Amino acid sequence: MTISVDDNESSKYWLSVLNERKNRGVKDVLVICADGLTGIKEAIAAAFPRAEYQRRIVHQGRNSLTVLHIFTVAKFQKGLPDF
User: What is the pLDDT of residues 49-68, one digit of tens each?
Assistant: First the structure.
C-alpha cells in the first residue's frame, strides 16, 4: 500500500508507482481494481503484464447515469446496489 501525490495522473506517473511496488518486493499482481485513471491500463501492462485491470463498478454505475434521460434515472438508481 502507498499514498502518493503528483501533479498529474499520467501513465508515466502510474508506472513509477507500480515500479515502486516491484522494487519493494511485489512479484506478481493478479487484479488491479481502480477508478478510470488516465494511463493506468498502460502502466499495468508495462509493470505487471499478467495483471487484470478492473474498473470500480461504482464508477461504471455512476457514469451510466449521465447518458440516461432525466425521467429514467430514478428507476435505474433503484436497481443499483448501495455503494
Answer: 999 998 877 666 666 667 76
Whole-model pTM over 0.85: no
CA-wise closest residue to 34 among 7, 10, 64, 55: 55
* Number of neighbours of residue 34 by Cβ within 10 angstroms: 14
**How far apart, in whole angstroms, are the C-alpha atoms of residue 66 and residue 47?**
33
Whole-angstrom Cα distance, residue 10 to residue 54? 18
Burial class of residue 48, CB neighbours in 10 A (0-12, 13-18, 19+): buried
**Matching residue, cell 503484464:** 49
Q: Rounded to an integer, what distance in angstroms lies between the CA atom of residue 46 and that of residue 65?
A: 32
